[in-house]
């Protein structure tokens, strides 16, 4: 896959980052990330509970191990309908009920079926934005998910506090700046509680336009 602008900027920024000094002699030293991240996957099955279809793919805390994890799993465009990937900080489970997520919200890109070719680029740019701590309020980010459905797919970034307008807006603006899209896209921010069935029609808290 062709490298996006965000991929190139991320790699350039990490060239001078501190190496893992704890590596044994003779073992290549790795570029450590500020956080450990866990990749999760869901293969939806109406006959099974959420706990039974959610499983942990693996965790990493270095740049090199991120790329190993990334290239050893299928990109979102290759996933079957009703499958999800989630990348969350280690210790945070990718569900609304988990305490760090409970009072939060999410920024969401909607990718229509006819634009599926850019889904992988958006997802990779979002991952690099997260693990590279690109946002000033990165401590307010819990994780991200990509959700594959029949007519549309969604890429979302989850935050801790839906009422922290300053942090949420800065994160949204950074996503608009760093995530590569081929056409103008709207990203919206809603609290998790707004996504409950009885509240789904309520307007988003923030709406931003991402430029190509």
Automatic annotation (TrEMBL):
One of its GO terms (biological process) is regulation of translation. It comes from the Eukaryota. Keywords: Initiation factor, Protein biosynthesis, RNA-binding, Translation regulation. Residues 1-28 are annotated as: Disordered. The keyword Amino-acid biosynthesis does not apply. One of its GO terms (cellular component) is eukaryotic translation initiation factor 4F complex. Pfam families: IF4E. InterPro entries: TIF_eIF4e-like, TIF_eIF_4E, TIF_eIF_4E_CS. The keyword Signal does not apply. GO terms for molecular function: RNA 7-methylguanosine cap binding; translation initiation factor activity. SUPFAM superfamilies: eIF4e-like (SSF55418). Residues 1-23 have a biased composition (Basic and acidic residues). Belongs to the eukaryotic initiation factor 4E family. This is eIF-4F 25 kDa subunit. It comes from Drosophila yakuba (Fruit fly).
């Amino acid at each position: 896959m062709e490298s996006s602008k965000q991929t190139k900027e991320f790699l350039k920024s990490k060239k001078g980052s501190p190496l893992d000094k704890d590596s044994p002699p003779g073992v290549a030293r790795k570029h450590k990330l500020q956080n450990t991240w866990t990749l999760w996957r869901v293969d939806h099955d109406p006959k099974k509970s959420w706990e039974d279809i959610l499983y942990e793919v693996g965790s990493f805390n270095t740049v090199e191990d991120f790329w190993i994890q990334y290239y050893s799993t299928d990109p979102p465009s290759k996933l079957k309908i009703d499958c999800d990937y989630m990348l969350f900080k280690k210790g945070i489970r990718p569900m609304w009920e988990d305490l760090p997520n409970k009072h939060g919200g999410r920024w969401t890109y909607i990718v229509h079926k006819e634009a599926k070719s850019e889904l992988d680029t958006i997802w990779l740019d979002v991952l690099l934005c997260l693990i590279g701590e690109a946002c000033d309020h990165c401590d307010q980010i819990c994780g991200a998910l990509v959700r594959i459905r029949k007519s549309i797919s969604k890429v979302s970034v989850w935050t801790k506090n839906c009422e922290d307008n300053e942090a949420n807006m800065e994160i949204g603006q950074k996503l608009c700046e760093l995530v590569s899209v081929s056409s103008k896209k709207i990203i919206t921010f809603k609290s998790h509680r707004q996504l409950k069935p009885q509240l789904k029609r309520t307007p988003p808290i923030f709406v931003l336009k991402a430029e190509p």
